Automatic annotation (TrEMBL):
It is found in: Cytoplasm. One of its GO terms (biological process) is adenine salvage. PANTHER family: ADENINE PHOSPHORIBOSYLTRANSFERASE (PTHR11776), ADENINE PHOSPHORIBOSYLTRANSFERASE 1, CHLOROPLASTIC (PTHR11776:SF0). One of its GO terms (cellular component) is cytosol. InterPro entries: Ade_phspho_trans, Adenine_PRTase, PRTase-like, PRTase_dom. It comes from Papaver somniferum. Pfam families: Pribosyltran. This is adenine phosphoribosyltransferase.
């Protein structure tokens, strides 16, 4: 099994395009659109997450806007969980709770519908990438405010040098591929 997994990880990693100096000089942008163009690598990505979470009694998959919306729904469907979108301000039509988080320059907010998650539900948070961890931290705080138990945070890509894992307050983090 390990050899198969290694093949899948290598295929996933090679399907992610790196674009230097985007959106600004010095940034090595991890472009997942090329992964999405490769059905085998995209399926491998979803399969690896599903294999990890299918027997963990998870009832909520929370996806971060916007690329968490790509990976979260197929994972949720495959493990029999509901998908809860966590969105930027003023994008959800119903009553919301919000959580502010820090960006490199300034702050942003993440919102979730009131009533989407119940106290005691077991939640998985999904995003495409962890950098500084600000977005994931906001998602953790939103879910904990309504009494959910965070099973793990799952990201396709990890930028280890930005130390986002250190900001998660000890919450488990699973990363499929580390960016070079």
């Amino acid at each position: 099994m390990a050899a198969v997994e290694d093949d899948r990880i290598a295929r996933i990693s090679s399907a992610i395009r790196v674009i230097p100096n985007f959106p600004k000089p010095g940034i090595m942008f991890q472009d997942i659109t090329t992964l999405l163009l490769d059905p085998k690598a995209f399926k491998d990505t979803i399969d690896l997450f599903v294999e990890r979470y299918k027997d963990k009694n998870i009832s909520v998959v929370a996806g971060m806007e916007a690329r968490g919306f790509i990976f979260g729904p197929p994972i949720a469907l495959a493990i029999g969980a509901k998908f809860v979108p966590m969105r930027k301000p003023k994008k959800l039509p119903g009553e919301v709770i919000s959580e502010e988080y820090s960006l490199e320059y300034g702050t942003d907010k993440l919102e979730m519908h009131v009533g989407a998650v119940q106290a005691g539900e077991r939640a998985l948070i999904v995003d495409d990438l962890i950098a500084t961890g600000g977005t994931l931290c906001a998602g953790i705080r939103l879910l904990e405010r309504v009494g959910a138990e965070i099973v793990e945070c799952a990201c396709l890509i990890g930028l280890a040098e930005l130390k986002g894992r250190d900001r998660l307050g000890g919450k488990p983090l699973f990363i499929l591929v580390s960016a070079a």
